[in-house]
Amino acid sequence: MPITVPRRVDSRLIAKSAGSLALAAILAGCASSAGRTATSEATMFEHPRHTTHRDGDDLLSAGLGLDSLRLMVPPAFADAAAPTAGELRRRAIWSSWRGIADLTPAGGYGSLYGSVAGVPGREFSAYARVPGATHPHRVLVQVPDAFDAAKRCVVVTASSGSRGIYGSISVAGAWGLPKGCAVAYTDKGAGSDYFDLDARAGATADGRVAGAGDADDLAFVPDAAEGASGVAFKHAHSKDNPEADWGLHVKQAAEFALHALDEALPAGAPFTFANTRVIAVGISNGGGAVLRAAELEGDWLDAVVAGEPSIYSSGNGSRALYDYTTEAALLMPCALLHMQDLPQPPVTAQVAPFWSARCASLEAAGLVTGDDTAAQARSAYDTMRGAGWTDAALRAGALSAGFDLWRAVAATYASAYGRYGVGEGPCGFSYSAQGTDMAPRAATAAERVAWWSDASGIPPGAGVGLVDSGIAPPDLTLAGLQCLRGLWTGDSEAAVRVRDGIAATRAAPPRAGLPVIVVHGADDGLIPMAFTSAPYVASARSAGREVSFWQVRNAQHFDAFLMLPDYGSRYLPLLPYVYAALDRVDAHLDSGAALPADAEIETRVRPAGTALEAAHLAIPR
Fold first, then answer.
1. Is-catalytic flag, 192?
2. Which residue in the list 159, 170, 284, 539 is annotated as catalytic?
């Protein structure tokens, strides 16, 4: 039974059976206070579920613990073609940890900072839908058995990148669950609910695969023409431009948390925004999502911590993700040839021939000047520096250039911003399982069932590839990249459509009086601070808002890549600073302790082969 909940009143999850929740569509008594306001628009939650995780299982690591999370091989399925819901959940949690945190012994996770202690409890999940959206987003709430009934706290988060529902467990779950807080998650309209167009099958509420005609709880069924082939996924093909509603996704997750707490802890009900602390935290796209939540009307949110946020604002110097991503996709491979001492991988000697070919292509297209590779590389470098890229961001961006991440991001976001469906995109990109010759093919059953647990939300990965119809020598990806860039710089109908979608994602300042801390690595090469956090903070302050800003030297975007020796000796993790910022806002809400001052944190990198220490981090006290 669906859950219909007006946002200014409190309803109760009043029935459960067969491991799932049902909620009568009733409206309980008003529980607002003079200090809290909210809209009266109803929120609908569909296909609610309830599961228990104790006795060898838990909320934070699915019973794996730190040692098993460190393993390079994911938890196995007993039947590779038919994993259970529990197996999928365990593997999704493993994938989510591995994709975000540096778990190497020398990296300090679990000893110097962070926790993967076993936290028994219950999970409540459902689908939610923002007004006007065609497709739902997932919401999930973890309620620990040791919930602090006196403090009554909820930590609400959104997945980083385009990850699935557990995509922020190492951020919000690792901080909130051991402290006795409930943690609420949203995949913010993206996630790993891939749909196999050939098999007409997708992910159900518990992650298992079913045919479109065999189940009524598929998370995503795209609008696709008869005979469409390949793979569709929500971020690219929902036609909803989910980024425009990131803030609402976060708020709906917080609303669902209150109702989950009503069900889990009836003696403490009703849980309302008036009597329950709500702190929002996220990193990367999740950081952008919580900043978008911060601007929503109504006194429903108590504090926000945003780490390395992807945020587009009216601040001076702010650039849209699509703008600098398509610029980097074209120019960065060439520009990096001008720089020395790049982090490895990518191995410079291996990529240099391809990057040299890009320089020649750019010169032929009139995008750089120079008679040889060195001069062309200098021209590309100067262009990027003139557009606001720092040397630190360019150097850290080498990983994204080497692994073709810029193109993958640009293709997905062009489709999302333009609200294009399957087969409708303007630049000829599609997605499919691929053979050894890279030709599209139908996915196998074993590949299909693992997408929900293993995929990052943007191919390539988990057996799904990015298919570029414009591939042609000598610079194989140039034509597609020029098309994608033209959607930002051109005046075609498609370009206007994409830019309209981007305009809908521009952030406003946070609500007045809301404590906000922004934390960003100064070396971030994927979401450069100069284009995102710094302009956002300046814009918020010009509107009279108080925002604390920590700029962390020697921190780039991907903590997980610190497992690579060269990255581990060059860069520091950002998660310790996010946790510390959460501690500071929590203390502020508890006792009125001062929020932290701005800081340009002068860190020290750890020498190769040594363990991370507190002195390296220099976290402000």
1. no
2. 284
